[in-house]
Backbone:
C-alpha cells in the first residue's frame, strides 16, 4: 500500500489521542473539551479511511495489482466494489 508509513504515523497519533481521551475522562475534564477531542479523533480516522479507500481505487480497482487466486474484475464488478468501498467509508 502506498503511503503505509504515513498511515502508520497517523494511526499512532490517533492512538495517542484516544489515550488522551481516556486520561481526560479519568481526570474529569470538562465535557465540551472531551467532545472536541472525540471530533478530532473521528476526523483523523476519516482521513485515514479516505487515504486507504483512494489507494484501493487507484491500485486495486483501476491499477494492475493482482491478488493470488483472484480473477481480474469486470467493469461492472469494479463499479460494484467502488460502491461498496464508498458505503463502508461513509458509515
Residues:
Amino acid at each position: 500500500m502506498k503511503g503505509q508509513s504515513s498511515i502508520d504515523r497517523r494511526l499512532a497519533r490517533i492512538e495517542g489521542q484516544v489515550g488522551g481521551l481516556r486520561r481526560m475522562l479519568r481526570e474529569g475534564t470538562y465535557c465540551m473539551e472531551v467532545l472536541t477531542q472525540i471530533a478530532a479523533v473521528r476526523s483523523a480516522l476519516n482521513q485515514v479511511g479516505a487515504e486507504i479507500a483512494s489507494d484501493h481505487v487507484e491500485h486495486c480497482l483501476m491499477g494492475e495489482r493482482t491478488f493470488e487466486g483472484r480473477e481480474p474484475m469486470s467493469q461492472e464488478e469494479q463499479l460494484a466494489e467502488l460502491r461498496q468501498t464508498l458505503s463502508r467509508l461513509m458509515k
